[in-house]
Amino acid sequence: MLINTDVLIPMTDANQNFSKVVRLVDEQGAVVILKNNKPRYAVISFSEYDGFLEYQKSMNDQTAD
Questions:
Q1: 41 FRET partner, CA 20 to 30 A, in 12, 15, 30, 63?
Q2: Using an 8 Å Cβ cutoff, are 31 and 48 in contact?
Q3: How many domains does the chain fold into?
């Protein structure tokens, strides 16, 4: 998986400046928060999250058939 290094934010920075995280999500679509220099969390917009849930539901519906 390729991750844009412009959207990697250390946990400490995210805690101290969450508005920066939100701004980057608005600009880039997602932010990856690092804990101990390893990707740990992804922050996405609600519309992206909603789309993911719809996709997941459709995949579950297909496998249930």
A1: 63
A2: no
A3: 1
CB atoms within 10 A of CB 24: 19
Residue 60: both structure tokens together:
């579950």
Q: What is the CATH classification number for the domain harbouring 27?
A: 3.40.1620.10
Query: To 5 degrees, how large is the angle CA 59–CA 61–CA 63?
Result: 70
**Backbone φ and ψ of 31, nearest 5°:** -135, 140
Domain range spanning residue 21?
5-64
Query: What is the total residue count of the chain?
Result: 65
Torsion of CA 53, 51, 48, 44, to 10 degrees: 10
| Cα angle, residue 48 at apex, residues 47 and 54 outer, rounded to 5° | 90
